[in-house]
């Protein structure tokens, strides 16, 4: 997961054309009902009301747009594309926003990059100064390792909006691999001096922290990261709910209290697709692990897939009800999961927070390898704190919150180890960068595969990488991030105390 994922525009409730309002029709009433439901987070009610309204008034482009937004939020991605296409057919105002939303679905959820680029190109033909589309195009180029093309797109953003923090930050990240860090620090400081918007300032401060870290200016780097996180919290990201995270772990432990409860008795029919799951903490080396494994001729990298959390959100009484799910229901979920995978054969699912849903994973796929990526605790916590996740990770902007989440993850991990035993395969980041062959072999063995030298290819070819590590995983392996916490020991007393109180060796514990 990373900040900078393709942006998409929220639903709009305004009429698409400026004209005198006619008397309100049944369709208008239904659209207003749908708008209210959507505003209240009732996606099911909103979708039903939009469909009813559009059956009565199919030319309402704004209704199709909002239906597409609701369907995307409900993870009904193909249906959302159909709705957005209808909005375009009915000549919606600001069609470039529809194309941006289509591109977000196609790239982030369906893996159809060429179609996403075509949608962004269409948006830019309609509106050449559409900053969000240029950012989206730059993100996609960056994800696929086309770094020069990504720079060009980010520079187009700066030609339109010279103070755009995202563009400055991403150019700095791309340049760190080839340009002296001191030059990048100076450039970012100049951009900061001119920045006026909090969102831009936060982006620039995160980038400045990374550049100062690369330059060895660790105290200044921490000050930059700390200021960036203060602003990010102020920007209104959802607050991390510690009690809710504890309750989630408690509920999983109660629902899957013995080894037998994570197994399925029935025989599952052979399928052309075999998922393997990579999970753990964010920033624990999961992207590097998936990238190296994905270079194997028989493995396809599936990225951060949403299916398991989506299923969990839909199951009434989750997680306590999972052990009672019928064979027919489990088979339906397996079918729906397989329909959205990018290829046949072995496909990795690198959704890190599936660590909190492994009971469901085992019920659905009892033979699927589950690979747990781990890292030294303080390195992992700092790496989360140093990354601008946006709203995707609610605990990332406060070191104490990151530590709390880490402790809950470790509670969850201890339970899965108890009930799954050797079925949970550890893959240690710090060992991986030093001895990749020996570290990867247990995971490959669990997939029934032999070693291939191309897993360690150094030509930078890794396919699409849609996480914050998209630049690093295209570089030769290195151990520079192992033990990184020591540069920031002066700021970590509180975190170390929290971890020690929870029973962990904060300086070495990555197990």
What can you tell me about this protein's structure?
It is a single chain. Helix 8 runs antiparallel to helix 9 (165-175) and helix 13 packs parallel to helix 19 (399-420). This protein has helices at 26-39, 43-56, 61-73, 77-89, 95-109, 113-126, 131-143, 147-160, 165-175, 181-194, 198-214, 218-234, 242-255, 286-294, 307-314, 327-339, 358-364, 377-385, 399-420, 429-432, 436-446, 493-501, and strands spanning 273-280, 299-301, 345-349, 370-374, 424-428. It has 22 helices and five strands. The longest helix has 22 residues, at 399-420. The protein has a five-stranded parallel sheet, sandwiched between helices. The model is unreliable at 14-23 and 465-470 (pLDDT under 50). The chain has 511 residues and is mostly helical. 54% of the residues lie in helices and 5% in strands.
Task: Note the main attributes of this structure.
single chain; 511 residues; mainly alpha; 22 helices; 54% helix; 5% strand
Provide the fold topology.
Elements: H1 26-39, H2 43-56, H3 61-73, H4 77-89, H5 95-109, H6 113-126, H7 131-143, H8 147-160, H9 165-175, H10 181-194, H11 198-214, H12 218-234, H13 242-255, E1 273-280, H14 286-294, E2 299-301, H15 307-314, H16 327-339, E3 345-349, H17 358-364, E4 370-374, H18 377-385, H19 399-420, E5 424-428, H20 429-432, H21 436-446, H22 493-501
Parallel strand pairs: 1-3, 1-4, 2-3, 4-5
């Amino acid at each position: 997961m990373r900040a900078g994922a393709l942006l998409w525009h929220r639903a709009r409730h305004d009429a698409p054309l400026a004209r005198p309002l006619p008397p309100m029709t049944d369709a208008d009433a239904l659209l207003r009902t749908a708008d209210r439901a959507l505003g209240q987070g009732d996606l099911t009610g909103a979708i039903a009301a939009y469909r009813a309204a559009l059956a009565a008034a199919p030319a309402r482009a704004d209704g199709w747009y909002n239906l597409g937004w609701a369907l995307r939020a409900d993870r009904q991605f193909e249906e959302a594309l159909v709705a957005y296409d209808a909005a375009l057919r009915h000549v919606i105002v600001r069609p470039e926003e529809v194309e941006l939303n289509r591109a977000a679905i196609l790239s982030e959820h369906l893996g159809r990059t060429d179609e996403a680029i075509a949608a962004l190109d269409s948006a830019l033909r309609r509106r050449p100064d559409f900053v969000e589309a240029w950012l989206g195009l730059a993100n996609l180029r960056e994800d696929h390792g086309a770094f020069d093309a990504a720079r060009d797109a980010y520079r187009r953003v700066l030609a339109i909006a010279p103070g755009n923090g995202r563009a400055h930050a991403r150019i700095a990240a791309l340049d760190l691999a080839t340009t002296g860090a001191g030059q990048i620090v100076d450039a970012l400081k100049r951009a900061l001096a001119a920045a006026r918007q909090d969102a831009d300032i936060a982006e620039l401060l995160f980038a400045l922290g990374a550049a100062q870290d690369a330059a060895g200016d660790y105290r200044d780097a921490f000050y930059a990261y700390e200021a960036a996180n203060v602003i990010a919290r102020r920007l209104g990201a959802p607050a991390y709910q510690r009690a809710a995270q504890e309750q989630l772990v408690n509920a999983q432990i109660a629902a899957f209290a013995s080894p037998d409860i994570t197994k399925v008795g029935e025989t599952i029919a052979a399928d052309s697709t075999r998922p393997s799951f990579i999970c753990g903490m964010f920033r624990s080396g999961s992207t590097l692990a998936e990238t190296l494994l994905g270079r194997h001729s028989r493995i396809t990298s599936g990225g951060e897939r949403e299916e398991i959390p989506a299923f969990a959100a839909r199951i009434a009484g989750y997680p306590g009800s999972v052990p009672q799910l019928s064979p027919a229901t489990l088979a339906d979920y397996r079918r729906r999961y397989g329909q959205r995978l990018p290829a046949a054969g072995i496909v990795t699912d690198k959704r890190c927070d599936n660590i909190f849903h492994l009971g469901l994973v085992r019920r659905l796929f009892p033979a699927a390898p589950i690979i747990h990526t781990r890292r030294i605790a303080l390195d992992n916590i700092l790496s989360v704190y140093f990354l601008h996740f946006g709203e995707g990770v609610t605990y990332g902007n406060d070191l104490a919150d990151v530590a709390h989440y880490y402790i809950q993850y470790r509670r969850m991990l201890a339970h899965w180890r108890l009930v799954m035993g050797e079925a949970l395969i550890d893959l240690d980041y710090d060992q991986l960068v030093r001895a990749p062959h020996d570290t990867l072999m247990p995971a490959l063995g669990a997939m029934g595969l032999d070693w291939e030298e191309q897993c360690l290819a150094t030509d930078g070819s890794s396919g699409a990488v849609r996480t914050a590590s998209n630049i690093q995983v295209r570089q030769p392996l290195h151990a520079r991030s192992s033990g990184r916490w020591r540069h920031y020991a002066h700021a970590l007393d509180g975190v170390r105390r929290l971890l020690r109180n929870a029973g962990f060796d904060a300086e070495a514990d990555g197990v």
